[in-house]
Amino acid sequence: MDELTKKITERLESLRVHLQADGGDLEIVAIEGKTVKLKLQGACGGCPHAAMTIKGGLERILREEIDPEIVIERVI
């Protein structure tokens, strides 16, 4: 696991508690360079705000804290 993948994984793991508090969760499907493929689960999987959670929340945090070129793609 390269350093970028490790940082992304660790940060997403730390953010899972917020999704779990709302009855949801996330699964890291793949990390390919700066593209992260995530699957939202539980209550988050069918939530109409899922896209906002990914782009406005998770992606924004990863871009601010790790690398501004990180992109999260939602896997359904």
Automatic annotation (TrEMBL):
NIF system FeS cluster assembly NifU C-terminal domain segment(s): 8-71
Gene Ontology BP, a term: iron-sulfur cluster assembly
InterPro entries in UniProt: FSCA_dom_sf (IPR034904), NIF_FeS_clus_asmbl_NifU_C (IPR001075)
A GO MF term: iron ion binding
Similarity annotation: Belongs to the NifU family.
Protein name (record): Fe-S cluster biogenesis protein NfuA
Organism of origin: Victivallis vadensis
